[in-house]
């Protein structure tokens, strides 16, 4: 008996399809994806699971969906044969499920190139029309744009059918992408997030002259309509493509007939991925025999005879080219991995943190190694292990002198960090201190970016944060004469500085740069002590009495307020600004003292506004889920924090629950 979906399943499915449609339009039409690959793949996988269990939801669902409707700015034409997508598999078990159903296990495995699909129609060997995938049945006319790409011949060579439609992928070499973005940045133009976006944005131009200025490349890999097929396998078709003048991915392609051979190629390509000069996001596994392909046929949106074996979205293997050292505002030296650029989850990653010398030692990484890089959500990419080392790899030696100022570098007993001790004379520390001071969570002074701060420091106009508030008064006329400045820009800068003269206590405590004190801890201090003087005079034991502040942090706070230079700067600052102390919280809210974590997107609230509401009700908003968390408020696309909350049995609220709590003073 056919299962009937209840209202909750219908609502979940409808929401997933709505999201997938919006994401497809952003990706295929606008060349500006709004979610990463993992988020998209997980949503599509869930929609397909629902449709498998409840077939009545499959029509117009993920099972039948291909691409996105064509954009109205292009002419459009129907594909003579639908241009379908490829079903995705994500692990060896899913590959095995597909493989075990095959009667013919002679397979041809190709790279899944991360670019924009095209269809090029040839009549009597001449290119007559080029289309994008579009909706799968109707594509956008990009004929003139394809003609600007040297890898796509306008006239076929050798012997060819009277009519043949070649399908393939337009992409951009990583080196060409990096050069394009470097030029765009220098000219103040838009930069692209990754080579796929750059290729798609370049190809889908109304004016083909713009396309011609971009270095685009292309592969051929399959065919659509053909008047006379003279090949019997996919591998033979690659021979034909190359004889006609197309480039293919044959260099990396392999034949396979067992699951072990598939796994072997998968593992080899993951390691080799960074050395491949263009982005790939998996492998395409095809039944090699064309007659078998035709017998197997297709589903509504994908062939049965091929699958795309996707790489993990959050991890990749690439080469560690070098290790450089950054100096932060507190003088801490942080080693940074300089990587061979690699696409991880839709973002081109070229650097990753290595944290400190102990982490380098723990990982055992050396310059020249193949390393495993992880990127999850907004977390800074990090190296989590070595995939392959070579005899030529070089061990990294931590510097004994600051790479910025040449000052001595020390590692204090019991500490993991190396620190430059030239705190007053190190430009990196001064710039870092001031960048932190004017940042959005600090004094939020618009118009004072890194370049401006460096300029004003080099001219001797700013030595410490307090100098910012007399900058225009003392040097306004001189600033107006600088390149890029004038009356209006100086007026705007002065207005931004004056706006910042009133600041909340927690933002002030964050801005002055107390080591170990982030935005959350600054709020804890402000809400507990209620004014700056009480914080300045607090002892270590006073500070340790605040839930969430330990002894190490307390010692850092006391040391900061006892430092002579800090005392001088603070006293000078207080002559220019007014600190707004927090309003005392009442304990009549049911959320008073509750530890709450926000995750995912809320429709009615920004993250900042939701945090402010919760704090006004006496709640403590935290950034991570732990066993001490009382409530997790989960919006759309909630990820690992929601998973962790469920594992720990923590109460989870929806946005509706949050609404009710706001309306009823904390009661859900």
Explain how this protein is built.
With 668 residues, this protein is of the alpha+beta class. It has six domains: 58 residues, Helix Hairpins (Orthogonal Bundle); 235 residues, DNA ligase/mRNA capping enzyme (D-amino Acid Aminotransferase, Chain A, domain 1, 2-Layer Sandwich); 96 residues, Nucleic acid-binding proteins (OB fold (Dihydrolipoamide Acetyltransferase, E2P)), CATH 2.40.50; 74 residues, DNA polymerase, domain 1, CATH 1.10.150; 77 residues, DNA polymerase, domain 1, CATH 1.10.150; 69 residues, Rossmann fold, CATH 3.40.50. Helix content is 36%, strand content 20%. Strands 12, 13, 14, 15, 16, 17 and 18 form a seven-stranded antiparallel beta sheet that branches. The protein has a five-stranded mixed beta sheet with strand order 2-11-10-3-9, sandwiched between helices. Strand 13 and strand 14 form a beta hairpin. Helix 16 crosses helix 17. The longest helix has 23 residues.
């Amino acid at each position: 008996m056919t299962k009937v979906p209840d209202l909750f399943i219908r609502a979940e499915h409808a929401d997933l399809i709505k999201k997938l449609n919006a994401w497809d339009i952003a990706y295929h039409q606008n060349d500006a994806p709004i979610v990463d690959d993992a988020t998209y793949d997980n949503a599509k996988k869930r929609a397909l699971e629902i449709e498998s269990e409840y077939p009545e939801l499959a029509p117009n669902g993920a099972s039948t969906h291909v691409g996105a409707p064509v954009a109205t700015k292009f002419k459009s034409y129907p594909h003579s044969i639908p241009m379908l997508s490829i079903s995705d598999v994500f692990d060896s078990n899913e590959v095995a499920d597909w493989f075990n159903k095959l009667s013919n296990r002679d397979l041809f495995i190709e790279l899944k190139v991360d670019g924009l699909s095209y269809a090029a129609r040839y009549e009597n060997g001449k290119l007559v029309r080029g289309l994008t995938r579009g909706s799968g049945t109707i594509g956008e006319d990009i004929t003139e744009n394809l003609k600007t790409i040297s890898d796509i011949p306008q006239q076929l060579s050798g012997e060819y059918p009277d009519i043949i439609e070649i399908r393939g992928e337009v992409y951009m070499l990583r080196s060409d992408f990096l050069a394009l973005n470097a030029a765009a940045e220098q000219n103040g133009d838009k930069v692209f997030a990754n080579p796929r976006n750059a290729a798609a944005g370049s190809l889908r131009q109304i004016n083909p002259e713009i396309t011609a200025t971009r270095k685009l490349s292309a592969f051929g890999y399959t065919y659509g309509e053909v008047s006379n097929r003279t090949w019997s396998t996919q591998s033979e078709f690659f021979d034909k493509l190359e004889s006609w003048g197309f480039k293919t991915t044959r260099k990396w392609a392999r034949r396979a007939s067992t699951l072990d051979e598939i796994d072997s190629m998968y593992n080899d390509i993951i390691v080799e991925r960074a050395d491949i000069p263009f982005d790939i996001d998996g492998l395409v596994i095809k039944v090699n025999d064309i007659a078998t392909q035709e017998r197997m046929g297709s589903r509504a949106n994908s062939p049965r005879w091929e699958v795309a074996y996707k790489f993990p979205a959050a991890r990749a293997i690439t080469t560690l080219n070098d290790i450089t050292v950054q100096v932060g505002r507190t003088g801490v030296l942080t080693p940074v991995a300089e990587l061979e650029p690699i696409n991880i989850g839709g973002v081109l990653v070229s650097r990753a943190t290595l944290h400190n010398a102990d982490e380098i030692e723990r990982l055992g990484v050396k310059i020249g190694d193949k390393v495993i890089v992880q990127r999850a959500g907004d977390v800074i990419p990090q190296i989590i292990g070595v995939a392959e080392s070579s005899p030529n790899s070089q061990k990294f030696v931590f510097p004994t002198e600051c790479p910025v100022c040449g000052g001595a570098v020390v590692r204090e007993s019991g500490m993991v960090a190396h620190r430059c001790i030239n705190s007053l004379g190190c430009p990196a520390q001064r710039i870092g201190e001031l960048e932190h001071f004017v940042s959005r969570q600090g004094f939020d002074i618009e118009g004072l970016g890194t370049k401006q701060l460096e300029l004003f420091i080099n001219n001797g106009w700013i030595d410490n944060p307090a100098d910012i508030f007399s900058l225009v008064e003392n040097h306004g006329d001189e600033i107006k004469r600088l390149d890029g400045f004038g009356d209006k820009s100086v007026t705007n800068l002065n207005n931004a500085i004056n706006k910042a003269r009133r600041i909340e206590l927690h933002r002030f405590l964050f801005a002055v740069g107390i080591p170990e004190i982030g935005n959350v801890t600054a709020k804890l201090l402000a809400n507990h002590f209620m004014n700056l003087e009480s914080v300045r005079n607090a002892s270590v034991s006073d500070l340790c009495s605040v839930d969430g502040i330990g002894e190490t942090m307390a010692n850092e706070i006391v040391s900061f307020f006892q430092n002579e230079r800090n005392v001088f700067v603070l006293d000078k600052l207080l002559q220019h600004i007014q600190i707004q102390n927090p309003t005392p919280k009442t304990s009549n809210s049911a959320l008073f003292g509750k530890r709450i974590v926000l995750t995912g997107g809320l429709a009615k609230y920004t993250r900042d506004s939701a945090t402010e509401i919760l704090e006004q009700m006496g709640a403590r908003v935290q950034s991570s889920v732990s066993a001490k968390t009382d409530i997790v408020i989960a919006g759309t696309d909630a990820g690992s924090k929601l998973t962790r909350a469920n594992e720990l049995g923590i109460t989870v609220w929806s946005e509706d629950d949050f609404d009710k709590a706001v309306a009823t003073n904390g009661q859900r």
